[in-house]
Amino acid sequence: MSASGKTTSSSARPRLRYIHWILLGLIILVFGLAIVLVTSGIREDIRAQIISRDADVLHATVMLQFQQLAEKLDDEVREPATLALVLLESARIRGVVAARLFETNGLFHTSFPIHVTESELPEPDQRAVLASLPVSRFHPDARYEDVFLGLPVEGDDAITLPLLEVSVPLQAAPDTEVMGIAQFMLEGDSIAREFSLLDRNLAGRGIAIFFAGAVLIGAAMGWALGRLQRANRQLATRTEDLLRANEELALAARTSAIGSVAAHLIHGLKNPLSGLHQFVNGRKGQTTDAGDDDRSMWAAAATSTRRMQQMVGEVVRVLREEQQAAAYSVNLIELEEQIQKRIAPLAKEHGVSFQVSRNAAVEIDNRQANLIILILGNLIHNALQASPAGGLVTLGMREQRGAVEFRVVDQGPGIPEAVRRMLFSPCASSKDGGSGIGLVISRQLANHLGAQVALESTSERGSVFVLTLPLAQRSHNSPLDEKAAAS
Questions:
Q1: pLDDT at 3
Q2: Cβ neighbours of residue 65 under 8 Å, at least 6 residues apart?
């Protein structure tokens, strides 16, 4: 995956977390609003039941008193004085502070006590009462002067009190004719206390339910979002792996095609390079009378052409063995000798010591050995370039967990994080004359062997690269064997 793709992915994660918090907040807000609406509805229903409770009790009491009086007075029960007597008897019920008597048409008739103010019965209440249904209304802040006659008090000095207003029909039974309408004013202190207690209880339970629900919603959302983020990370990782695999497949296809061309070029370069080396050596021998600069220049040229000859010769040898059917085993001692022969001049040139240690006695196929030498040569060359003059580069060979492990350790300044992310991908090289694909080719060669090459560690004290070749590979034909057998 490209660096820009990783940057986009990493910058999107904080935005996703921000959206998750907003979503969680909205869900909790909707949950809180739902609790408020439900609690408000329950509050109104319970308040209506509390208010109607006293109205039902008062209706039954008045109906009983009217029935008893009707049995004594017979036809006189329709008289206004009889209705007033019923009102008077009912006004003695505990908690009643005032009573009004209305005719069935809603007009005021009389009141007890006499200093109760006159009023009109609202038309909706009148219709309900005539249908034998008691009507109750609670006034938490009823003005004293609206109920009782007396000196009016205005402004902040006005006296208020809670009152329950109950209007009931005057009739002997629910299915009998309504003779009049009685309206009672009852003390509302007890109802006000019930309402206050109800509000506190509902508020406390609502808050408890809200916080409990918020915690559960937060936990559920956190769990769900956690799983979603893990799935997201797994998907991103798999996408990166797939892109990396596609890049490696594409690179393998390109290197395979380039390898075929390179084989022809190597064979073609062998003879011209030999002639160039002879020419440079000849010129080097003719500069005895020349200046120091000329002599050093021709000596460096001779060294470079000799190294190029060695490299071409090594590649030609690898290609020749690939094309031949001959197969033999190479032990680690012979492998070390080949590497020492190749690396010693480079180490001397860079002023760096090179040491090899072995802790294994295994043998590998000659074709595998050729590619291992190429891979290790590239890794060691990089280590020599990274290490300061007077430093040390080591190659360790050991058998561990069913594999041969080659460890290249340098004393360089370490690999920066930005370079580490793209270490085995084609990139621009920071070295003079570098192509930026040395490690890429090393990994391709390792994959060709069924081996693995990786950066084990890096710090200011140096870096460690590890090439791991499974020993099981020795008992099977490698891809090189199959290629040689087919040729």
A1: 45
A2: 86, 89, 90
Q: What is the pTM of this model?
A: 0.44
User: What pLDDT, on the 0 to 100 scale, is given for residue 410?
Assistant: 95
Owner of token pair 């936990």: 219
8 A C-beta contact, residue 177 and residue 129: no
Determine the pLDDT at residue 157: 63
Burial (Cβ within 10 Å: 0-12, 13-18, ≥19) of residue 364: buried
Domain with CATH 3.30.450.20 in the chain: 3-187
CA 354 to chain centre: 49
DSSP-derived secondary structure for 274-312: HHHHHHHHHHHHT-TTS-HHHHHHHHHHHHHHHHHHHHH
In the Cβ-directed half-sphere of 272, how many Cα atoms lie within 13 Å? 5
pLDDT at residue 454, rounded to an integer = 92
CATH topology of domain 3-187: Beta-Lactamase (3.30.450)
- Determine contact, residues 51/164, Cβ cutoff 8 Å: yes
Q: What is the pLDDT of residue 478?
A: 43
CB-CB contact of 55 with 136 (8 Å): yes
| Residue spans of the chain under pLDDT 50 | 1-9, 11, 432-436, 473-487
Provide CATH 3.30.565.10 ranges for the chain: 328-487
328-487 has which fold? Answer: Heat Shock Protein 90 (3.30.565)
